[in-house]
Known about the structure:
Oligomer: single chain
Low-confidence stretches: none
Distance between the termini: 45 Å
Order of helices and strands: HEEHEEHE
Bound molecules: zinc ion
Amino acid sequence: MSDICPKCGLPKEICVCEDIAREQQRINIAVDKRRYGKMMTIVDGINPHELDIDTLISNLKTICACGGTIKDGKIELQGDHRIKVKESLEKMGFMVDVL
Ligand SMILES: [Zn+2]
């Protein structure tokens, strides 16, 4: 038996709710300068109910080869990774703004 999507009631294989959720989400990427001149890439605008933020941050840490944490629902990556983060989020189907 296949899983049924709780939103639209269709089997998960043909449900597009997750795709729609991704398109509706606008994710902001910003760079923050911290103490001692350290740069942090901040990824904001993620809806934790529609996206697995833990999976996303581990993917981004691998792609950027850096450390990172989740703080107040935002992803913080060590260093300036705006371009890499933007490219990978767009590949996943998100709308991305770089601030
Ligand atoms: Zn659905």
